[in-house]
């Protein structure tokens, strides 16, 4: 079991790191030939940073378009963020002070994370036009995250795991050696699904996380009159024809 999980996590980590690096590079070099920020849009670079921050932290455009999705979606994402921050302690010998401070919040965030996921799942089933456009992967993604959260809650409140042993296992794992895996059913379910999450991440809709930063409708400055917009490849073509 120890060898299995160590190998599985090395593999999953390699997939997500290399996969994301590849995808981000691809997004980076894809030209945006048109000036298409959704207006009203900021007219300065600082304004764009502010707009992106609002988009990522409070999901501004989702808020404007649909309050129900916003409530559940935002609740899920913010809780996920807290939960993941709380998880840093499994990978640190001496957790940073703020990781210690957020521990209790992270614990309750598991509930709001799961409630958010259930809300999003119900929406996919109940709202006819959302059901119509939902693919199996949309449901599976929510189910996978739900069971990660659910197994986490089980470990918290029903069948406790040896946290120190988990920490020792992952600290050894980070040093490329195989420690003793504290075998327990909820932990096996939790970590198997987490490995699945890491593996599917670079091939799935979860790419919206890095992708949002590359969205031209959000990241462009609204200054077409002040500065001519020209994609890099077009500029190169122009230079070549001049040359
Ligand atoms: C920069 C970070 C992220 C931002 C700004 C972001 C934002 C969003 C937004 C705006 C939606 C649309 C909600 C909707 O219309 O259904 C969404 C959906 C979703 N996000 Fe994220 N997200 C981020 C990271 C993540 C991560 C790290 C995960 C999971 C590991 C995740 C999982 C999901 C899932 C599963 C959905 C689909 C919900 C549904 O089925 O309706 N997101 N995200
Ligand atoms: C290698 C990565 C991970 C390890 C080693 C790990 C381990 C654990 C452990 C040992 C617990 C029980 C905590 C306790 O009893 O106090 C837990 C709880 C939990 N985990 Fe994970 N987990 C990992 C990744 C994730 C990911 C990626 C998510 C979310 C997508 C997640 C979501 C949760 C939730 C919601 C809980 C319950 C609340 C909490 O204790 O924070 N875990 N995890």
Please provide a written account of the structure.
- The chain has 243 residues and is mainly alpha-helical.
- The chain is built from 13 helices and no strands.
- The protein has helices spanning 2-29, 45-58, 60-65, 67-87, 97-101, 103-126, 128-133, 136-157, 163-174, 185-200, 208-211, 216-219, 232-242.
- The model has no long low-confidence stretch (mean pLDDT 94).
- It binds protoporphyrin IX containing FE (2 copies).
- One protoporphyrin IX containing FE (HEM) binds next to helix 4, helix 6, helix 8, helix 9 and helix 10.
**Fraction in helix:** over 70%
> Could you give the order of the helices and strands?
HHHHHHHHHHHHH
Domain count: the total is 1
The structure class reads: mainly alpha
Strand content: under 5%
Q: What coarse outline follows from CA principal-axis ratios?
A: globular
Q: Over all CA atoms, what is the radius of gyration?
A: 22 Å
Looking at CATH, which topology would you report?
Answer: Fumarate Reductase Cytochrome B subunit
Determine the mean pLDDT.
94
Ends distance: 64 Å
- Fourth-tier CATH superfamily name: Transmembrane di-heme cytochromes, Chain C
CATH architecture: Up-down Bundle
Number of discrete helical segments? 13
Q: What is the CATH C-level name?
A: Mainly Alpha
Molecules bound to protein: protoporphyrin IX containing FE
Number of strands: 0
């Amino acid at each position: 079991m120890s060898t299995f999980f160590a190998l599985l996590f090395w593999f999953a980590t390699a997939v997500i790191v290399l996969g994301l690096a590849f995808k981000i590079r691809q997004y980076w070099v894809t030209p945006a030939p048109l000036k298409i920020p959704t207006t009203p849009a900021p007219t300065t670079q600082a304004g764009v940073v502010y707009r992106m921050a609002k988009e990522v932290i409070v999901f501004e455009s989702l808020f404007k378009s649909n309050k129900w999705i916003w409530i559940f979606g935002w609740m899920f994402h913010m809780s996920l963020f807290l939960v993941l921050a709380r998880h840093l302690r499994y990978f640190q010998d001496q957790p940073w002070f703020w990781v210690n401070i957020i521990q209790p919040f992270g614990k309750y965030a598991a509930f709001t994370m799961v409630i958010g996921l259930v809300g999003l799942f119900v929406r996919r089933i109940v709202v006819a036009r959302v059901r119509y456009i939902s693919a199996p992967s949309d449901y599976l993604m929510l189910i996978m995250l739900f069971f990660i959260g659910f197994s986490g809650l089980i470990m918290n409140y029903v069948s406790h795991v040896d946290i120190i042993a988990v920490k020792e296992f992952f600290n050894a794992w980070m040093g490329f050696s195989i420690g003793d895996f504290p075998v327990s059913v909820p932990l096996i379910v939790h970590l198997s699904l987490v490995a699945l999450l890491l593996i599917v991440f670079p091939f799935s809709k979860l790419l919206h996380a890095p992708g949002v930063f590359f969205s031209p409708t959000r990241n462009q400055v609204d200054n077409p009159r002040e500065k001519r917009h020209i994609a890099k490849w077009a500029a190169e073509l122009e230079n070549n024809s001049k040359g």
